[in-house]
Write a structure and sequence with these properties.
The complex is a heterodimer of chains A (about 625) and B (about 160).
Chain A (H helix, E strand, L loop, with lengths): L5 H15 L4 E6 L2 H8 L2 H12 L5 E6 L11 E4 L3 E3 L7 H10 L9 E2 L6 E2 L6 H4 L17 H6 L4 H9 L2 H11 L11 H10 L6 E6 L8 H8 L1 H15 L3 E6 L4 H16 L15 E6 L9 H8 L23 E5 H13 L1 H5 L9 E8 L5 E6 L2 E2 H8 L9 E6 L5 E4 L6 E2 L1 H6 L8 E6 L4 H15 L5 H18 L7 H15 L3 H5 L2 H19 L14 E3 L9 H5 L5 E2 L7 E2 L9 H5 L5 E3 L1
Parallel strand pairs in A: 1-2, 7-8, 7-10, 8-9, 11-17
Antiparallel strand pairs in A: 1-3, 3-4, 5-6, 11-12, 13-16, 14-15, 14-17, 18-21, 19-20
Helix pairs in contact in A: 7-11, 7-14, 8-9, 8-11, 10-11, 10-12, 11-14, 18-19, 18-22, 19-20, 20-22
Chain B lengths: L4 H11 L6 H12 L4 H10 L4 H10 L11 E6 L2 H5 L2 H12 L12 E6 L11 E3 L2 E3 L4 H14 L1
Parallel strand pairs in B: 1-2
Antiparallel strand pairs in B: 1-3, 3-4
Helix pairs in contact in B: 1-2, 1-3, 3-4, 6-7
Chain lengths: ~625, ~160
Amino acid sequence: MRLNSVRDLEVLREQINEKRKSIRKRIRICGGPGCHSGGGAHLREAFQKLLDDKGVSQEYQVVETGCHGFCARGPIVVIEPANIFYERVKDDRVPEIFEKTVLGDELVDDLLYVFPETGEKIVRERDIPFYAGQERIIFNDTGLNWSTEIDDYISRGGYSALAKVLAGMKPLEVIEEVKLSGLRGRGGGGFPAGVKWESCSKAHGDIKYVICNADEGDPGAYMDRALLEGNPHQVIEGMIIGAYAIGAKEGYIYCRYEYPVAVKNGLRALEQAKNYGLLGENILGTPFGVDIFITRGAGAFVCGESTALMASLEGKIGEPRGKHIHTVEKGLWHRPSNLNNVETWASVPQIINNGGKWFASIGTERSKGTKIFSVVGKINNPGLVEVAMGTPLRKIVYDIGGGIPGGKAFKAVQTGGPSGGCVPESLIDLAVDFEKLKQAGSMMGSGGMIILDEDTCMVDVARYFLTFLVQESCGKCVPCRVGVKRMYEIVDRMCSGLAVPSDIDELERLGSTMQEAALCGLGKSAPNPVLSTLQYFRHEYEAHVNDKCCPAKVCKPLIHYEIDTEKCTGCGVCRRKCPESAIIGEKRECHCIDDELCVRCGICIESCKFGAIYIE
Amino acid sequence: MEYNIEDVDAIINQWGPKPASLLQIMLDINHRYHYLPRESMQRVSERLKMPISQVYGVANFFKVFSLTPRGRYVMHVCTGTACHVKGGPKIIERLQSELNLMPGETSEDLMFTLETVNCVGACAAAPVVVVGETTYSEVTPSKVTSVVKALKEEV
């Protein structure tokens, strides 16, 4: 069916909602990456089978939605209309939920969320502190949305922003609205989206492109995956509006190879939009038309950089180029191209619907709106969190994130991926926005927040990012190609106990050279993980270099495994499990470890029932 | 799977023999054979009227492509930041000793390939290992041992 006018879209929406009235309850199964891998892959089928067997699939509906964000408690099942929230649902609990909560109105008590401090059980999704502390605007729809059905998106007002634009806004008015909103790119740079759109719309050329950067390469960030998988139409609608504003006739979504479901759901969504006439020629019966395609990347981090991404789209090696001429002037195939990332595009429909002024009323002076963070690592509630810009870090880590597991101390949070840095515990009250993170020596990046506790070695973290960058540096310019390699070698020496005192200065010198001389953003920001950890955790570097010790007990050459003579019962389990035969001892007598043979694999610690083996 | 010129041609035709399709064509070929057979790159170069050096350059540049045959099970160990701080390196070590392979290597019987991947976007479930379409979440060294054992028995 093709929609030939804005009116057609409204009629369709009414029809969908009318049909929905016969549905008494809706079972929402989270299909996000956390829940899916955590055992939720077959929940939808299991519920559907029960519905079919009882012949009630007209009254009850089961849908697989996008990510709910509360990945710590997955697999998640929510039952509408009361929004009863069940956590950690396994396949074998499906019949019980079906009988009690779907057909009946009883609760399955032990699947409810328990508030850890009081032991109080919480029934409704929004009352859970993890959700209550958030301001969900861009990411709210993802957990409600039936990921593969356009009708579901339309039922909740989907494509109404596009209709509003096509029915009565001039391209310039759309750009003004986005400028007014203060929306800044969510992919890393934080460049004002409206200004970029304006430059691209003014650039000379008949053929222009809109591009969606879905090459979410920052390790530890997965909000773009969740958005594109769970609510692809929100992204596509944003892109169509952008294309209208800029005057583009073609768009590309460049998606990471590692996200096959995002590609699959994106392709399906594009096809559905085409069938409704929301893509292609004469959208909603207007003269405006645009086509969007989805393209897979092939596992190169540097392709998240705009010029490298465009080179890759052209079928070339994904190397960046100098940006003396911006991509809004000469980008893909030397034509004006406007690139934004997934989250930025997904913000557009809301801005159009509610007005730029509304969006600008949220957040801080120079960072407007909300931001989705992927709060992961050593945290009780790992997941996706959307908060207003300027929310204190403490609130994100403790109120929403639930604090650090195992009673450990919070040490730092790593933000901005391999281009970012670490914010230490002393800055826990930092109001997180673009500026404040930059002042703290880190950056927003795409919104990854990896929480580190006292057991994390900061020198090891620096080495981790350098390993990453050595692999991912494209090799085009010398400062980056050789610079990260040399920095890696120095930090690796530190972790191996072979460093000399001048190494710390050498690191700083190399770092500042790279910041000056590298060609693209990746190279310029590559020293950040080292420089920011040096800034706040210099004592840890000094301990590695001068005392040859690793305070967090992580770097293998600097630690020894020991057996506690009080606790060891001489059971012999560790002796038998040790792959290097490094543990010696008679039966029922205290064992000991031969440090020469020990490779610090940790198998003995894992196997000891008495907790007798420790790291010195 | 044996190399077959008709299959490669079908893939090329699906995307159209134009330079912009290069990456997508190569991804599909790589997916089909688990690597890029030499003949397939020659064919792509002919059909896209593109120097073989450019095809080879792209094959070398992107991490997904392999120029040598890979195993039936490719064990992708995530090395994202969240996985790293939650014990990812121990998972790699254990798989190295279980499979007797270094990352990037394939066993002689073409059963297993050990690969690292820079984040698969399942960070809340860290550390994770991806094999085919299955993502194993919150893995421990002993869990990974049993996964390998189960895969070996499947054969």
